[in-house]
Fold:
Amino acid sequence: MEAEGIVVVGGGFAGFWAAVAARRIAGAKLSITLVSREPALQIRPRLYEAEPKDLAVDLLPLLETVGVEFVAGDVSTVDVSHRRIRLRTGNAIFYARLVVATGSTMRRPRVPGAELAHSIDTQHEAIVFDERLAQVVRTSPQPTIAVVGAGFTGIELALVLRDRIARHGTAVQAEHARIILIDRADVVGRQLGSGPRPAIEAALAKDRVELLLAKTITALGPTRVAFADGALNTDAVVLATGMVAAPFAAKVPGLHDEQGRIVVDQSLRAGSAREIFVAGDAAAADWRRTSCSAVVSARAPARPVRR
Structure:
């Protein structure tokens, strides 16, 4: 017997809410399955904050409450002609509608040593950076932290670092710390536009965040930033250098933008693959003109799971 079903790939905010919305709209008519590497929703927009170990939510009880099946796995391929995804374990899951919500990942600079610098892109990386920050505070009376990337995340991180240093050490250490925000652009928050810039600059100045703008980085390390015209030695370097679509997006047929996101129409459909929808950071969309209701608008049957 064939079963109707919607499969959501990705356990972040977009994936979770797509699964919940699908269940709400479809009722009991369709099976809803969410596939993700782990049953945890990381609160990524807040990973710049203190206590990153607390910034994840167990998805299993939430999904069970709304009647969404969870499958732990890493999806390796999408077979559009057979409407199935295949996990790295070899297992296949068939779908009537597929929602790709695999999110984004930080774009590390393409310079030597970039992989050695810290980041806060995932909860694990944020925890590792917090542990390094605690270690720095234990050994340095005047910590120096360099944040590379003066976009939204970099600005937020720079503005909370004094408080985080005080939490790990003393108010005196926080007062004497050097927080340095670095970017290749000649202004902070270039992608945020000029509107909020005066308020951002005022906040950074009030918190005594040093700005190194219009800088070309030639190499990175865990404690060093090299420029075309010199170098900066620090106690820790943390990257906040923008986002690209997670690698899975490249496996979905259709057009992709310069960030690797899947180009979608107003219904969030991915090009000619009319049964595939894209949500969240994986989608290149005009979010003012899209509708998630299209995910369950058709009732084409999904084939059963095969092992």
Observations:
- The chain has a mean pLDDT of 91.
- The longest strand covers residues 31-36.
